[in-house]
Every structure is written in structure tokens, then in C-alpha cells.
Amino acid sequence: MPRNDTHILSAIFRTKPHFIVSLLIATATFLILLPSEKALLSFIISWNAFSWVYLLFLFSKIVGSRKKDICQETINADESAKMVLFFLLIGCFVSLLVLFFVLGGHDALSTKDKIFQYSLTASTLISSWLLLPMGYTMHYAHLYYSNPNYSEPWLYFPEKTLKPDYSDFMYFSFTIAVASQTADVEIASTPMRRAVLLQSIVSFIFNMAILGLCINISASFF
């Protein structure tokens, strides 16, 4: 394995324990279910396990973190944050793709199995959708605090604060995910604009995929 890849992986283990714990829980769930369930269904359930556990960790981190903690985490985990975000992007889209196959042939299922399948689908859609803006919340925080010149911030918030916390970045990220706009936050750097552009494109595609799945599910009732 190249030295740089080893460095990034070691950074993930060192600075992203919550991500690793969530991944281990998902892996254990998959291995436990695999002997008795289909591989695709086992994957979807294990992805849900990862998503909800990791979301819980992220929300608790946002609530409990202080501004100086964010600065320190940015210094320690910039490279690993990019890899984690990439994993979340791939995982969310793969989970939606797998759902298309899992939902196939549901006409022959019993009412109980249909309820389980649709509940699992709803859980997957909600958790996957939440993961994207939450992942970008962390990414924007890392980008912002990687700027060495605090007097010229890469994002201008309405209060003109130079040290926003995670809730500020969460507001920025979810506004893009929901409305495809940056609201009252001004972008002032090329790296930040690139990140916003990527999130806007990804969010649009992801929202269209969710809409397609919802139409598919609705059609099955008729």
C-alpha cells in the first residue's frame, strides 16, 4: 500500500473513531445476517445500522463540540475527512441502487413482509439523505478552518463571525441540500465554491433518485 494511503488510513483510525465504530457495527450486522438473509437485504440492513449509528455520533458531536475543538480537529483530520466524505457519497448512492433490486418482486410478498420492506426502504432513504448534508457539514468545517488567514474567511455568515461552530456549517449544508441555494451565507473562496458545486450536483441527483424510488413504491399500491 502506498505510503500516502497508509497515512490517510492511520489518520482515519486516529481521528475518526466514531466512523470506525459505526463501520464495525455495520460489518458485524452484515456477517450475522448473511447466513439467513439474501446478500442485498443484509447489505441494506447493515447500511442502516451504519447510517443511524454514525448520524447519532455526528449529532452528539455537533451538540457537544466547542469552536476550539473544531479548529483542532481540522488540523488533525483534514485528509481523513475527505476520505470519509467520499465513502459516504459512494455508500449513499450504492444503497439507493441496491434498493431498486430489493424492491423487485414485492408483489409476491405477504403483507407483513411488505410492511417490513417499505419500512426498511423509508429508513434507508431518510438515513442516506441525512448523511450527505451531515457529511458536508463536517467537510465545510474542515475547509473553513484549513484557511490560515482567519481575517479573510472562506464563508461569511450574517453575524460576521470569524469562528462559526458546527451548527453554522450544518445550516449552510442543509440549506443547499433542501433548497439548492446558500441562503444568507456568502462564499468567498474557490475551494469552498467547488465543494458547494459538488454538493449541489450530488444533492440534485440524489433527490431525483429518491423521487424515482417513491414513485416506484407508490405505483406498487395500485
TrEMBL record:
It holds the Pfam family DUF1345. Keywords: Membrane, Transmembrane, Transmembrane helix. The chain crosses the membrane at residues 17-34, 40-63, 84-103, 115-132, 196-219. The keyword Coiled coil does not apply. It comes from the Bacteria. This is DUF1345 domain-containing protein. The lineage of its organism: Bacteria, Pseudomonadati, Pseudomonadota, Gammaproteobacteria, Pseudomonadales.
